[in-house]
Amino acid sequence: MPGQSGRPDPARLPDGADPFDGDVLPAPPHAARTLLASLLRPHRARVAATALLLLLQQAAVQAGPLLVAFAIDQAVPALRGGGGQAPDQGPLIAVGLAYLVCATASGGLQYAFIVAAARVNQRVLLDLRGRIYRHAQALDVDFHDRYTSGRLISRSTTDVASLRELLDEGLQELLAVIVSVVYIVITLLWLDPGLGAAALASFVPLALLVRGFQRRSKRVYRGKSTAMAAVIVKFTETVGGIRAVQAFRRERANDGAFARLNGRHWKMNGDSLLEMARYVVNSRVTANSAVAAIVLWGAYRVADGDLALGVLAAAALYLRRLYEPIDHLGMFLNSYQSAAASLEKIAGLLAQRPSVPEPSAPGGLPPRRERQPGREVVFDAVSFGYRTGGEVLPSFQLTLHAGQTVALVGATGAGKSTLVKLLARFYDPTSGRVLLDGVDLRDLAGPELRRNVVMVTQEAFLFSGTVAENIAIGRPDATREQIEGAAKALGAHEFIAALPEGYDTDVRKRGGRISAGQRQLVAFARALLADPAVLILDEATSSLDIPGEQAVQQAMSTVLRDRTAVVIAHRLSTVEIADRVLVMDHGRLVEDGTPAQLTAGEGRFADLHSAWRESLA
């Protein structure tokens, strides 16, 4: 129901605003951080081991300047001898060996860290892609009607790729910068408190630079991500409607629209590069000035005898290492802002909740007796309205008896499709209940509902794969004999057997390798094999030619037998096979009777029937 959808309350949005119009879906505060934490939580042990490897690697790296200081202040004087002491090569040899050990250990530990971090990152991204895919399937039809497939594709490709860059490169850089800064500052304070304090003080202007860059780049990267999504949406829309594009010569107009979107993305990308260039230049000037000032001050102290030369040399090396990662920090912030904008969008998508949620305590249907002709359907005081408009179906009462074939008739917009979508539970009623053998559909688990209620749409959708795989979608455990039996019962076996590989022929994208009538027969075979108690046919013959319609009509008589059926009909041939006809007008049921009764009357159906007859003549 609308109140259970988990979507933002429209009352909290600006007047006339639609939360689905923008590229970022509203989400709870800190949803992006919560999502990242939930992705990392299952890998806590691996993350801890990776962090330990980084600590050890940085300890090996940062030991170098200390060894240099020891060599200058201790090992070199010992090598010279003097003061009654013989020259001693031992300290210098020990320093050289220690430096070699540290360098070797640093390389090995860095390799181990990169491998361990990469494994964690790939597992996180694998989990995230799976979450997006599963969540997109679980969201209701209303969501997919309003949130474009191009945006969903952008979430699972471009935005996940941004997060991958952060995890693979930026996050490692950040951790290395943080650990090295902590090591260096502590070591400088230990070597000489004055030098350490000066190094800490120099971080104030650098911190201000980082903060300013972060604030500006956040806005730029959010715009860049949105612009990229718009490009993908336009491209997907054009390719998906390529027949209409070429039929109505929309190529030039589409080129112009795409060029504008592409130009906007180019501008946002240029802005991000410009922000990065400003940051790098300003950070390097600040860092180099700080190093020069601190080393000059240290040199005066060495001249005054207040500071050992080796300590100054080590401090100079540490200062270079301290400020060198500032550029890397900018690159991390670059990746972070891009990933943060993407993570915010992914979190907004994952925060959406289906408007037709699974029941907390699902119930079951009474056992279906052998040869039971379908199940009884009751619309009990049902009314419904879409979130984007007013009431579509005013409150009504309707009972469809088990085994009955009911045709829904009415003008476009009369509410026929809405009624069957409520029966299929693509939506929940605003008020009232839809009952199947006395059980509210909202109390049935999804698999139980789909076993009993199956819908064959106007455009029979086939997935890439073989004919046999498409027929078995509703019953994956079916044997080849059962699949072929369903096809034979509907008269589809002959054309399937004539295909290049028979039932193993790949129908390709959307079943484009076979005709519309053949796709509809495959869809009927799928429904027959699934053996639902209730079958919904949404205008199953409207797009077919006469031979195709005749083949499908023959199949319909087979697939509708011994089950409750609701058929949306625009053609007289479809209505004539029904036991009962319901005429709808503006969401209301205005006529109800058998085809013969309504044809003999003087109501809307009689008028429609006369118009059909005249069109056939």
Offer a concise description of the structure.
This protein is of the alpha/beta class and 617 residues long. The protein has helices spanning 31-40, 44-80, 90-138, 141-146, 149-191, 193-201, 203-240, 242-247, 251-303, 309-323, 325-350, 416-423, 446-452, 467-471, 480-489, 493-497, 516-530, 546-559, 572-575, 595-600, 604-616; strands at residues 377-385, 391-400, 405-409, 431-436, 439-440, 453-456, 534-538, 564-568, 580-585, 588-593.
Structure description:
The protein is an alpha/beta fold. It has 2 domains: 28-350, ABC transporter type 1, transmembrane domain (ABC transporter transmembrane region fold), CATH 1.20.1560.10; 377-616, P-loop containing nucleotide triphosphate hydrolases (Rossmann fold, 3-Layer(aba) Sandwich), CATH 3.40.50.300. The chain has 21 helices and 10 strands. It has helices at residues 31-40, 44-80, 90-138, 141-146, 149-191, 193-201, 203-240, 242-247, 251-303, 309-323, 325-350, 416-423, 446-452, 467-471, 480-489, 493-497, 516-530, 546-559, 572-575, 595-600, 604-616; strands spanning 377-385, 391-400, 405-409, 431-436, 439-440, 453-456, 534-538, 564-568, 580-585, 588-593. It has a 6-stranded mixed sheet, sandwiched between helices. A 4-stranded antiparallel sheet has the order 2-1-4-5, with helices on one face. β7, α18 and β8 (564-568) form a beta-alpha-beta unit. The longest helix has 53 residues, at 251-303. The radius of gyration is 35 Å and the shape is elongated. The protein starts with 30 loop residues before the first helix and ends with a helix.
